Amino acid sequence: MQRLVTSTSLLRSAKDQFSRLRARGRWFSSMPEHAATGSKNEEPVLPRFEYSPPRYMGPTAEEIVRKRKEFLSPSMFYLYKKPLNIVHGKMQYLFDENGRRYLDGFGGIATVSCGHGHPDVVQAIVNQTNNIQHSTILYLNHAIADFAEALASKMPGDLKVVFFTNSGTEANELAMMIARLYTGCQDVISLRNAYHGNAAGTMGATAMCNWKFNVVQSGVHHTQNPDPYRGAFGSDGEKYAKDVEDLIRFGTSGHVAGFIFEAIQGVGGIVELAPNYLTSVYSTIKKAGGLVIADEVQCGVARTGSNFWGFQNHGIVPDIVTMAKGIGNGIPLGAVVTTPEIATVLTRRNYFNTFGGNPVSTAAGHAVLKVIEKEKLQENAHVVGSYLKERLCSLKDKHEIIGDVRGRGLLLGVELVTDRKSKTPASAEVLEVMDNMKDLGVLIGKGGFYGNVFRVTPPLCFNKQDADFLVDVMDYSMSKL
Amino acid sequence: MANRKTLTYIVNAKWVSNLSFIRRFSSSLQPPELPPFDYQPVPYKGPSAHQVFEKRKKFLGPSLFHYYQKPLNIVEGKMQYLFDEDGRRYLDAFAGIVTVSCGHCHPEILRAIEEQNKLLQHATTIYLHHAIADFAEGLAEKMPGNLKVVYFVNSGTEANELAMLMARLYSGNLGMIALRNAYHGGSAGTIGLTALKTWKYPIPQGEIHHVVNPNPYRGVFGSDASLYAQDVQDHIDHGTSGRVAGFISETIQGVGGAVELAPGYLKMVYEMVRKAGGVCIADEVQTGFGRTGSHYWGFQTQDVIPDIVTMAKGIGNGLPLGAVVTTPEIAQVMSQKIQFNTFGGNPVCSAGGLAVLKVLDKENRQKHCADVGSHLITRLKNLQQKYDIIGDVRGRGLMVGIELVTDRKDKTPAKAETAVLFEKLRELGVLVGKGGLHGNVFRIKPPMCFNKDDADFLVDALDYSMSKL
């Protein structure tokens, strides 16, 4: 294979080089050991990966787009100008229909925690599927019990009763219902810019207009978001907390069902709640008789690195914790964990979830917890995440367009603005950079109300070389703007 | 002793030629035997029933209920059979609540799941992948009319939530109508549609009204659909602004006790609802995929075409998968905002779902359900002649219900007897389900590979158990 960097290429203009790269249709997977240099003029190289994907013989991207248009929801969107046909995944890499390798910086939306096709998780799934896949909890099966026990052992305080669902939405719906039943009150408070789901109740808690359909969503109030970058009070958590007090005093009967939050808002653009906010709000909610619900769908399961759960970074112990996404490495699985006392409210009637807690999903979930521990993925998230954040901060010094770099562990956000003072969202530039990064072999996500925040939430096996490559590609792409 | 007439009748009866005749004739004298099955389960080395039960009590909450006084530890499954920790085999007549459609660990489904798991398990629909597109196409092909836009979700509850949202957005109205005795889900929104008090928590469930259930057995109008339909019109005229969002129903109510709607009901109601601006939603979570035998979808038994169809359970043979199918017009309203489901349509579930469609077609399961189902129902109706406690035998295909009453006239639910028989059946090796508001209905909804021998065994076991009451 040709060497990436020759003396001639260094002399070529950046634009020429870029279009040549595209025309050649590079195969990064077989590139030699050339290390990423972060230089403006050299294209960064994907870290080595000793693996060849199986050859893809299925339908092409065009055929799939045609079928999607005909048979799938018209509101279904995809990323990139030329949508990517992802056919195979291995650890932190994805492969398209041509066998080209990409660094997965998005993790299927913070979902693939151990890595695509992680052998231990796949093994657990295959073994259990061959044994018994589904029987419902009307009969006993050890998989659900063992997994519930393992999950409970990861929880502080008295949080040890688990309800299994199939998604984050189902988990948050159940959490909200439990809070309302337990307190006998209806009002739930959530944060502006939050995302909690898309069913009737959770759509109410979700607080971004483009995710809220025009249907009745009663019983939820949205409080000021303690957003250190865009919020009125900067990082002063306690000032934002006052709004919750006001809301309860004037907008409710004085007693509420509960408060639901994400410790780091995911869809909202990786917004980490201002420090000291949660401790103040916690006591306010308790005074009003409410329950505190931590939505750990994105920030949970070791992703923040410093702690297993996002709420632990804020020094509180919630009454209910919900999770999904990373808990199953991609298998449809969600869970609600609460205290035995609160759990008794569901005994008033029957609550049942046909698929929830099925042997395969719980076996996979259990395997995920084991892999995280065995491979020390939480520590890795912390180390690599901090390193990555550091490099991104240096990038911020270099490019004016980067307004903010934030997040924790491998839940990071890069907000792009056209003007650092007025913080005008650079939504168009984000799309362009994202597309360029894809062409260079890096897939990331985007979020935030204005769609101007890069979301970097890779599988937790992401390493330093990957981090370097990601930043170098971002650097290179931004220089081409 | 049988007299000449009875003997002649027996000799001339169709089922004499069957070898198992001997067994059946003496079924009330000895416990029946499971049909043979050439398969040895893997020796189980995991935690015992007691250990699992203790952990459940500690970590899974007090609201988690289970079947049987001595809960059953099910560790392995193969086609229509289940195995407990001692390697004992049971006939699974409930299929994990009407969910295991092709059969436990059906080899082709397993292969599809395994192969896809090794390739790519999850990436979301923000990237392309052929599995979701192929599966959506496969499902759309099975639908009549203009029903061809598919939304993938992870459960029946999610599907019904989405259907309700679509109905309200498309019609611009709020009021939903559902049937008393219906079950549509366990989330706050679908609890409103559900109409059985045991499943309804005391939370606000606004803008949903329940109409009189067209229940041929217990309903006040018997099988007269037009009188029941009149209740819907009454409600629209007097209980709403005259405009509604939609109507949702199961064609054979599942949790409610295998209640088949009075014939002709849906045709009339669909017209009324559409006149009032509403959409018609068919909940096919239990009745879909050929289970009714006569048709692929339950709603087809009532000769209607809904505007939205929801499904789950059998669609994936146990995979956490649900779907909503609707028309392009209705789908259009959803494009006003972003509607996204992280796990919905993931490659593994889509590959599994497509494999299920293929297996059901290849193995002719719909016809099989019709054949075995009618044999089963015939035998059960004969049993009904023998035992007064059987108040009603109903259903179609492999979606069958047996309602037990202590008095055929008053139809007093035989709750206690049902519970006793339920346990007895388990001891004999038959696992059935229970339903109905009073818990007095046996639900027989096995994996669709259930055959005539299994049906005979089940009826014999029931016969034997009832004779011992």
Automatic annotation (TrEMBL), chain B:
GO molecular function: alanine-glyoxylate transaminase activity; pyridoxal phosphate binding
Keyword Transcription regulation carried by entry: no
PANTHER family: ALANINE--GLYOXYLATE AMINOTRANSFERASE 2, MITOCHONDRIAL (PTHR45688:SF3), PTHR45688
Gene name in the database record: AGT2
Keywords: Aminotransferase, Mitochondrion, Photorespiration, Pyridoxal phosphate, Transferase, Transit peptide
Main enzyme class: transferase
Cross-referenced PROSITE patterns: AA_TRANSFER_CLASS_3
Self-association and partners: Homotetramer.
Family statement drawn from the similarity comment of this UniProt entry: Belongs to the class-III pyridoxal-phosphate-dependent aminotransferase family.
Gene3D superfamilies listed in its UniProt record: Aspartate Aminotransferase, domain 1 (3.90.1150.10), Type I PLP-dependent aspartate aminotransferase-like (Major domain) (3.40.640.10)
Family matches, as Pfam families: Aminotran_3 (PF00202)
E.C. number(s) listed in UniProt: 2.6.1.44
Highest rank taxon of the organism: Eukaryota
Cofactors required: pyridoxal 5'-phosphate
GO cellular component: mitochondrion
BP GO annotations: glyoxylate catabolic process; L-alanine catabolic process, by transamination; photorespiration
Protein name: alanine--glyoxylate transaminase
Reactions catalysed according to its record: glyoxylate + L-alanine = glycine + pyruvate
Location in the cell: Mitochondrion
Stored InterPro entries: Aminotrans_3 (IPR005814), Aminotrans_3_PPA_site (IPR049704), PyrdxlP-dep_Trfase (IPR015424), PyrdxlP-dep_Trfase_major (IPR015421), PyrdxlP-dep_Trfase_small (IPR015422)
Main location: mitochondrion
